[in-house]
Specification:
By secondary structure, this protein is mostly helical. The protein has one domain. The protein has helices at 2-7, 9-12, 20-37, 44-81, 84-113, 115-118, 130-145, 151-190, 197-221, 223-231. The longest helix has 40 residues, at 151-190.
Length: 235
């Protein structure tokens, strides 16, 4: 299944790019076309890349969700069939893989909701053409100056907001789920059915989605600095 996660999303999405470098080149070239067109609508070549990237995230997210579901089933069975050190060792491995699968599902949902925005980091990959560098420089000047934005930059801001709003919602849901698991673990601890390390672990894990939620809400509330940092070479 892990092999499928790595190899299948591109072909299933109708990959017309031989490798990552060709995809980046297409993003660079078509973003320049988008910028020159003045926005806010994506020209057909850019829209084709965005549509492919959306499908890519759909298939990758589905495969990651299947892996996560499989790991949950394995974890339940391990809990019923193993004890002692064997349970700790196997459970730790499954738990770590489950966290990785969860993060992957979250990232791909975010990519589905805002596929154009999830392509933005590729604009920073090298080599960059002079036309792309000039487009990003102009966008940065508008963002730094504030005030009225061109339709193309405003569309980028809107997509940047959508990108972070998606993760904020995902983080909020995850916070509720993990907090619920922590509460259930503390109830079992109160009944002397498990050691304190498990509820403590779940409680600590609750902090991660809370921090993620706060960071993404901040980006939604004030998107210009974050997008400016992106076009100037940061994310």
């Amino acid at each position: 299944m892990i092999v499928a996660f790595v190899l299948l999303p591109g072909p299933l999405a109708g990959n017309s790019f031989a490798d990552h470098e060709q995809l980046v080149a297409a993003v660079h070239q078509n973003f320049v076309g988008y910028w020159q067109a003045g926005g806010p609508s994506l020209p057909p070549p850019m829209q084709d890349v965005v549509d492919y990237w959306f499908r890519y995230h759909v298939f990758k997210g589905l495969i990651a969700a299947l892996i996560l579901a499989t790991l949950i089933v394995i974890g339940v069975r391990l809990r019923r069939s193993l004890t002692g050190a064997a349970l700790v060792t196997a459970g730790t491995a499954v738990f770590a893989l489950g966290l990785l699968a969860t993060v992957t599902v979250m990232a791909n949902i975010q990519g589905m909701v805002a596929p154009f925005g999830s392509l933005f980091p590729m604009l920073l990959e090298r080599p960059a053409t002079p036309q792309l560098t000039d487009a990003l420089t102009q966008a940065g000047r508008q963002l730094a100056a504030g005030g009225h934005l061109s339709p193309a930059v405003q569309a980028m801001v809107d997509e940047f907001v959508r990108y972070h709003a998606a993760m904020a919602v995902i983080a909020a849901v995850l916070t509720i789920v993990v907090a619920g698991l922590a509460a259930a673990a503390w109830r079992r601890f109160a009944k002397r059915q498990q050691r304190a390390v498990i509820p403590i672990l779940w409680s600590l894990l609750t902090l991660a989605p809370v921090v993620l939620l706060i960071a993404n809400v901040s980006s939604v509330a004030d998107p210009a600095p974050g997008l400016l940092g992106l076009v100037q070479g940061g994310w």
